[in-house]
Specification:
three-stranded antiparallel β-sheet, single chain, alpha+beta, Fructose-1,6-Bisphosphatase, Chain A, domain 1, 7 helices, D-Maltodextrin-Binding Protein, domain 2
């Protein structure tokens, strides 16, 4: 894809993410939800945000398939949009503000472009071919990860999906500070240099992390499996069993060793 195409997609992603976020906030005070077959909650905000995003993308770009948590399965496409219209539905229901809109472009298994919008705070993260960015109000700035310091480590964990293996890993890591947050905010925190590492031992869907992964890549970090290999979004799959998001482009050997002991 050429630079012009990518620039157009970045702009569409940001527009779609913000408009979906506005639709989500229109439904923020609603307490109605149902439980899907996988046990996760589904609200009207999920569905309406999904509609907004798919309509905006499909109206401008017709040759890239849209894969969403709410309406599509993965397929054999080399290139596709991957969407989580409301990441952190549990946080949305609990009204703590820790939810996001996630939109990514996947090319040959790699997240190339991503936008993450925090509707409650009106914060926007995204990346282009070279850099990652953060926008709040009228201020836009490039963001970068910070160098990992094993003696002064700031770690991220999920507020709603933490388990024993994750807790055991955190004990071994012994971070100076531990942040508990929902959704892809954790990946954005690493991308903007607020933390170093986010371990997740347990299944997670592609659409939960792809947009944040793209932003993290262009900010200087990456997401790895427990063997230290970079995560790829393979065809006809939707689950990643465990991962470690990190502020650098290579996972240290001691962290890999600690993680492998827990599997």
């Amino acid at each position: 894809m050429n630079t012009e195409d990518l620039s157009k997609i970045v702009s569409l992603f940001n527009i779609a993410a913000i408009r979906a976020g506005e639709k989500i906030m229109e439904n923020y005070m609603s307490s109605k939800y149902e439980i899907k077959r996988d046990g996760s909650p589904l609200t009207i905000a999920d569905l309406e945000a999904n509609k907004v995003i798919t309509e905006i993308l499909s109206s401008e770009i017709t040759d890239i398939k849209i894969v969403s948590e709410e309406n599509e399965e993965l397929n054999d496409s080399e290139k596709y949009f991957l969407i989580d219209p409301l990441d952190g539905t549990k946080e949305f229901i609990s009204k703590n503000g820790e939810f996001t809109v996630n939109i990514a472009l996947i090319v040959d298994g790699v997240p190339v472009l991503g936008s993450v919008y925090l509707p409650h705070k009106k914060e926007l993260f995204w990346n282009d071919e070279k850099n990652s960015y953060y926008k709040f109000k009228n201020c836009t700035k490039k963001i970068f990860t910070q160098t990992y310091n094993p003696n002064l480590t700031i770690a991220e964990v999920s507020r709603s999906h933490i388990n024993k293996r994750t807790n055991d890993f955190i004990k071994i890591l012994n971070p100076t500070t531990l942040n508990k947050t929902g959704s892809s905010i954790k990946l954005c925190n690493i991308a903007r240099g607020l933390s170093h590492i986010y371990p997740r031992f347990g299944n997670v869907n592609y659409w939960d992390i792809a947009a944040g992964h793209s932003i993290l890549r262009k900010a200087g970090g990456n997401i790895f499996n427990i063997n230290g290999k970079k995560i790829l979004y393979k065809k006809k799959q939707s689950l990643i069993k465990s991962f470690i998001a990190f502020s650098e482009n290579k996972l240290p050997k001691d962290i890999i060793q600690h993680a492998q002991k827990l599997i």
